[in-house]
Fold this protein.
Amino acid sequence: MSDSNILSVSDLFKSFGQGSDKKSIIDGLSFNLKRGECYGLLGPNGAGKTTTLRLCLGLTAPDSGEITLAGHAVPIEARAARLRIGVVPQSDNLDPDFTVQENLLVFGRYFGMRDQAIRERIPMLLDFANLTAKKDAQIGELSGGMKRRLTLARSLVNDPELIFMDEPTTGLDPQARHMIWERLKTLLSEGKTIFLTTHFMDEAERLCDRLAVIDHGRLIAEGAPQQLIAQHIESQVIEIYGEGATAWAQQFKQSESTRTERSGETIFCYTNQPQPLLDSLHHASGLRYLHRPANLEDLFLKLTGREMRD
């Protein structure tokens, strides 16, 4: 593994089940995380994101392939590797029997830290999570946003080099999400590395230096968000709403630079030359439309499809 890489995954395979019930979850996955970057892992439900994280953490053994985490071979040296990382799981698993600061103290002991060293870090962690006033509160007294911030603070107890974050803002209101984003940006500015899975495309676009899109356990695209958008998607999108949207789309003569998709009652027109469409819509009655630049969600839907995944 290069010194610039804190995590290296090479030709990873993982299946579950046996015989005719055997199902491939990870199928030849390879990627690297550079130190100091935020790397996003995107994919629909069932694409293999959480399994990938478990493999990288040494919680699940691969069928084949190589993983090197913080200089350690995983899963053989997973315990040593995990001493140098932090984890924010999908669901908060805080201990309800302890107060806010007691949760931090007890968690620090799992890393072999002395109580004095943990106590010296607790005020900084509480301030980081904006929970100083709640230090003696029971977990049941906290809001969902507070619990999420405490889980983030807890992942920093051991001053990790790399933080794994599995959908860290799911279920939060916009204010709480934005606060978490600001905290993550602070960590990146301090030189931490973040491995992020998320279903929020705006979150990935805001935070990630690079990202990978996976589906059925395979890597289907990797790069900087804006680079991937420019590479795979037309530059402009026009969303058309209303009962007459389908009829308009059928009548409008598309140029070679226009691609049209339908989702429910909405028509999506992807184009590098939006003006002819806008002129046509301006003269159409009973239609509402939105003209915007292409974004990461457009890329994601093009690569993975619009069908629902369970």
In short: The domain at 234-293 is CATH 3.30.70 (Alpha-Beta Plaits).
